[in-house]
Structure formats: C-alpha cells, structure tokens
Design a protein that fits this description.
Layout: E1 9-13, E2 24-28, E3 39-43, H1 63-77, E4 86-89, H2 93-105, H3 107-112, E5 113-115
C-alpha cells in the first residue's frame, strides 16, 4: 500500500457567503469580507504588464504570495490563531489569476500552501 501525505495548508477559493465562521481569510482588496473571520490578510491584484520585458530580475513577487507569507509568519509567531486552511476571496479575474499563479509558480508558497 502506498501512502501520500501532503502537510501543506490548503487554500480554498470561496465566496464570502460560503466562508465558515472563525476562518482565516485571504481577501483581494475590495472583496466582500465574511462576518466572524479569525484573521483577514488582504492583497492587491498585480498590475497587468508590470514590466514590458517581463524578465524575472525586475518582477516583484506576486502580492498573493506576499500575503500568504504574512499569514504563515503570523501563525508561526503566535500573532494569528492556528489554522488548518485558508479561505481565499477574490473579486476580479486578475485576483483569481494572481491566486492561481502564486499557488502554481511561487516556490515558497508551494512549500507552505496548496490549492484546496
């Protein structure tokens, strides 16, 4: 028998109305927030075409990756309650794309989080 254990924290993309009480929320700026969230970390969708050439040396990290870093560090330092999942709430296609890009392409985010 083969076992597979993925201990990374799942990130679930939901609407604010579907968010369970006491959840830790990653929310795009301007997205509606659920009542009773334990912690909310916001991010701004990145501008389209931040650099015309698009080389990696001049590209900043994805804002979703930075916000997930803040959540991870807050949990580690005891500044946020312990959480087993993150609820992501977006309001735009750019926000959804930034979330997917972070979970699929940022090595630090991939080490800590996974798509739920």
């Amino acid at each position: 028998m083969s076992w597979s254990l993925d201990a990374r924290t799942p990130v679930h993309a939901l609407d604010a109305a579907e968010c369970p009480p006491g959840a830790v929320v990653l929310a795009e700026d301007g997205a509606p927030l659920p009542a009773g969230a334990a912690r909310v970390e916001r991010f701004a969708a990145p501008p389209v075409g931040a650099h015309p050439i698009g080389c990696a040396c001049c590209q900043p990290r994805n804002p979703v990756a930075i916000a997930l870093d803040r959540l991870f560090l807050a949990r580690t330092r005891g500044d946020a309650p312990w959480f087993n999942e993150v609820i992501a709430i977006t309001r735009s296609e750019a926000g959804r794309q930034a979330l997917a890009a972070s979970l699929e392409g940022d090595s630090v985010t991939q080490a800590r989080f996974r798509a739920g």
